[in-house]
Amino acid sequence: MKKHLETKLSHLQDFATIQDPYGASHFPIYNTGTFDLKKQDGEKIYDYTRSDNPTREALENLFTEVENGAGCVCTHTGIGAVSLLFETVLKANSQVLVESDCYGGTFRLLKVFQGKYNIKVHFADFLSEPELEKILKNNKIDLVLCESPTNPGLKIIDIGMVSVLAKKYNTLFAIDNSLATFISQRPLDMGADFSLFSTTKYISGHGSVVAGAIVAKTKELADELHYYANAHGRSQNPMDVFLISLGIPTLKIRMKEHQKNSILIAEFLEKQSFIKAVMHPGLKSHPQHKLATYQMDYIPGVFCAEFINKDFAEKFIENTKIFGEKCSFGSPDSRVEIPAKISHASFSKEELAAIGISDGTVRFSIGLENVEDLIEDIEQALK
Q: Poorest-confidence range of 44-48, 321-325, 363-367?
């Protein structure tokens, strides 16, 4: 019987390697460091939780299935998934092609790899196919990496176009799928070799834990990920796996609500005199709106608004009562931040300006509150 995605997400125990003898509807937490080899007689043998654990394996099986991959590794943080990708794919003197508008943690990590391993990083605008092809043609690129939507600029990258170019020039292609999640888009189906995501965000949905995951398209790549995850100690612990799994069955309905609320807030902000521009892929004013609605089933609840100046943006954040000034996104509570101050503090002013982010840019992560309360909070914060 072929099951739809939301049905699979509501029956997590089906993905467990070990079936619970009592019919537990949620896979058990094997919160142990080691396993007794003499007491195991099944096809799968476990010895040490860093290498393999039944709880973590159930979640890895789920992510492999829903991303249509060949294998997955769940990591202790979202940036841990990016680190594992680099540790698996790159070596000294490798070259990487990265979207200029990338997550601040990824940017910082690239700087570390540049300094320690002489990795050469090419930053580019992934909306420009000629620019990408020129770099790929003139350099031996080992990895292409981007997000879609990007964070914080909210560009929508044509994943199919980039994957065609990556294959043409025989390079691996990875997508950070944290904002859209697999409920909305499946990068491996569009030609990517890796789909990675911070499960801290929408997938967990509760803001109670930090974690990540990376899914590979082929068994060969998946086996390499597992090898390096074990060697470098990147594996997620069983209790965090359990916390992540609690939010998964409600992912679809939460994403619908995040989308609805965020579009209503973005439309409200577009009409305000204190706002210069709003970048939300769900708005018709967004330059890649058509691609967004084609490529994604749901638009995430994160967007940016450009306030008239830095002081106005800071005053707004200071005065909100419901919106907290917090990093991250995807939780039930709504949040605001100035990327230049928090999530993208690793970027220089010039680097931020190149991707359209200023000191007056505010990133919104719209939660699950009543949208009328959120609009009222915005109004009172600017009185």
A: 44-48
Q: What is the pLDDT of residues 218-266, one digit of tens each?
A: 999 999 999 999 999 999 999 999 999 999 999 999 999 999 999 999 9
Torsion angle defined by CA atoms of residues 120, 124, 128 and 130, in that order, rounded to the nearest 10 degrees: -30
User: For residues 344 and 352, is the Cβ–Cβ distance under 8 A?
Assistant: yes
User: How distant, in Å, are the alpha carbons of 160, 229, 270 from that of 175?
Assistant: 11, 19, 30
* Alpha carbon distance 177, 157 (integer Å): 11
Euclidean distance between the first and the last CA atom of the chain, given in angstroms as a whole number: 57
Cα distance between residue 34 and residue 3, in whole Å = 35
Provide the angle, in degrees to the nearest 10, between the axes of the packed helices 159-168 and 129-138.
20
Put simply, whether the predicted model's pTM sits higher than 0.90 gets the answer yes
Question: Residue 261 CB: number of other CB atoms within 10 A?
Answer: 20
- Summarize pLDDT for 13-43 with one digit per residue, the tens: 999 988 888 988 889 999 999 999 999 987 7
